[in-house]
Write a structure and sequence with these properties.
Distance between the termini: 29 Å
Strand content: 15-25%
Number of strands: 2
Number of domains: 1
Length: 86
């Protein structure tokens, strides 16, 4: 199936628009993760290093993911969200 250059440009533009929308959705600030569920809460002091680190991670378009270890510690990990430009 062949398409015209005009149709190809129109499709490329639409793809770019959809990719931008997806990046915005993935990087949205929200109290709940999109399509996720809050499992619980941890109180962090307003002036703590962790609160600043979490805030900085979100500003840098990273998700903050939580895991645990065998000693009962909760670990916070910053994971990149946005696609890198090529």
């Amino acid at each position: 199936m062949k398409i015209s250059q005009r149709e190809a440009r129109k499709l490329r533009k639409r793809i770019e628009e959809l990719e931008k929308q997806e990046d915005k959705r993935g990087n949205a600030w929200s109290s709940e993760w999109p399509m996720g569920k809050c499992l619980g809460k941890v109180q962090i002091q307003a002036d703590s290093f962790m609160r600043g680190a979490i805030h900085a991670s979100r500003l840098l378009k990273h998700a903050v993911v939580v895991s645990e270890n065998d000693q009962g510690e909760i670990w916070f990990h910053a994971m990149p969200l946005a696609k890198e430009e090529q």
